Amino acid sequence: MADTTTKDSQPAAAPQTSALKSFLSGGFGGICLVAAGHPLDLIKVRLQTSNQYKGMVDCARQTMAKEGVRGLYRGMATPLIGVTPTFSVCFWGYDLGKKIARSVGGNGPNDQLSLTQIGFAGAFSAIPTTLLMTPMERIKCVLQVQTAGNMKYAGPVDAAKGIIAESGVKGLFTGTTATLMRDGIGSVGYFVAYEGIKRALTPEGAKPEDLSPLAVFMAGGMAGMANWAVAIPLDVLKSRLQTAPPGTYSGVRDVLVKTVQQEGVSALFRGLGPAMVRAFPANAACFLGVEVSLKIMNSLW
Ligand SMILES: CC(=O)O[C@H](CC(=O)[O-])C[N+](C)(C)C
Description:
- The protein is an all-alpha fold.
- It has a domain at about 175-270.
- The protein is about 70% helix and about 0% strand.
- It contains nine helices and no strands.
- The protein has helices spanning about 20-50, 55-65, 75-105, 115-145, 155-165, 175-200, 215-245, 250-265, 270-300.
- Helix 1 (about 20-50) runs antiparallel to helix 9 (about 270-300), helix 3 runs antiparallel to helix 4 (about 115-145) and helix 4 crosses helix 5 (about 155-165).
- The longest helix has about 30 residues, at about 20-50.
- It is globular.
- The two termini are about 30 Å apart.
- The ligand CC(=O)O[C@H](CC(=O)[O-])C[N+](C)(C)C binds near residues 90, 186 and 224.
- Keywords: Membrane, Mitochondrion, Repeat, Transmembrane, Transmembrane helix, Transport.
- It is found in: Mitochondrion membrane.
């Protein structure tokens, strides 16, 4: 089994990727993530807002029977427009983080980065990603908590205009610290799990980048689950900060204290089930999309 912890004398270093290829492959991975994850997200929202379904399978069956397979992809344009650039920036930031780790750690071009260095690069990727992620999540969360009969905004553009009218452009950035903390910690779990599992699955003497699509799919799915396993408490705090009326909380510490005092620690794990059910297929498809598009680009130029 490949050594997963040291940076020295590794025969299996991945070739360094250009920033543009990382950006493009990340965007393609984001498209794959939405395509694979959207049906589960739609089922989750329909279950949350209607009593006509007996469960996830029944909801999928009824949706397909009445609306065809296309029904499962209703409303996919909005996440596609938001997630694609966010994942481009995330994978570009991860690539930049790996280059910084390589130069700080003095790794040669053929040395494999240690998992600590991978964790640093993952955390680093959250810095630029947060600039896009925060307003996207703010608008998404505000729309997701609207209920029938209490609809404040008609859609994402209307919500963005409403938030700006109420609190200025800075209103779109409510929850920035919580988003940075969530994705900083989440991205360490995400990329360390992905690289670690890929290395563990790589036979002695082989290279992780030559793993089968099935192995990439499994490592990607597990990486998505690792992301949510460590990020869910901060995701709960972020969602509460982003959907509360202005002035309810003074910051991350305040929402943490109030949540735990009023509802107990278990409140920090709400939504873990649906997040995990979506995480495996969505992120398996994402990493497969990233690796396949990188291979195609590498063969072209
Ligand atoms: C919160 C989020 O976007 O997590 C990503 C995985 C997912 O399931 O969407 C990973 N990452 C934070 C690295 C973009």
